[in-house]
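user: can you give me the structure for this one chain? tokens are fine.
assistant: on it. calling the predictor now.
[tool input]
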Amino acid sequence: MIIRRKTKQIQVGGVAVGGDSPISVQSMTNTDTRDVEQTVAQICRLQAAGCDIVRVAVLDNEAALAIKAIQEKISIPLIADIHFDSRLAIAAMENGADGIRINPGNLGGEEKIALVVAAAKLHGVPIRVGVNSGSIEKDLLKTHGYPTPDNAEALIESAMRNVRLVEKHGYDKIKISIKSADVLTTINSYQQLSKTTDYPLHLGVTEAGGLIAGTVKSSVALGILLSKGIGDTFRISLTRDPVEEVRVGFELLRSLKIRERGPELISCPTCGRTQIDLFGLAEEVERFVQTMETPLKVAVMGCVVNGPGEARQADIGVAGGNGVGIIFKKGEVWKKVHEDDLLNIFMAELKKMEEEGQKERNSAKS
């Protein structure tokens, strides 16, 4: 059983972070924020995949102004990612950002930090103090050295120094992130930081890599931390479509039995008996179930003979070969179809089950 670390709770738009609130899954758009149409389209895709909070890069004043138009068309909290320019942080909040991500140490001094904190107070916007291995102050690197698995002092002191800069101006709606590209450094840093402060922590491995390397690094680091009750919100950083970050994030939470959203997909690894395009079938089903909310167990199996038995606990499953496809429920054959029709019929049944699940959820709310 995982026992969550006790933290303060802050509100990011309509999503609570910290305390006893669910661990939230974040992502960041890779569109030009000034292109409102493309940014909104990507955010809507992220939301459909379950993303709780989204972050956008604010490169200039035009991007800060675009936040207002973006906010009018989305319904999840939006965080403005700011570097170096305090004016952009203020403009982003004035245009409706639900949160800002800054490194107070690079905003240009005490006076500018005071202006940003004053704007955050005025608009009720939480601040994420974000530090990574590449942004640590020179004096801390000289004192403590570059962060390693055995020495995370520079990262932790940088984060807490910057937190104190915000606190100095009477503000505590804060969450903290300290990121490294190294898995063991990330784990050690967050473990130590969690003993230092009760602010909510945003987890992540920076510059993690593509789909495979990034998924492995992030899952190892974040999985270990979450299993120890450390972490209130996180992003899986991938050099990939950001929707993939959300998919990996929810699978990570599901694997630890922390939080479940939608169906659990199980599929066989294939073998010499497979006589169907299992890779393509599994990919299509996986893409669709990411948009579902009904908690089902869905199986995609490659062998008609063994599939239903091996996936007996699945609510619904599919298997095929030699031109024949079967759809089974709870280990029993429900329908036998031609292989060419298998995907369409299976998807139609999944949609029907999702509609029924939605009706049940709506009925429970009323």
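assistant: here you go. The chain has two domains: 9-255, 264-365. The two ends are 32 Å apart (CA to CA).
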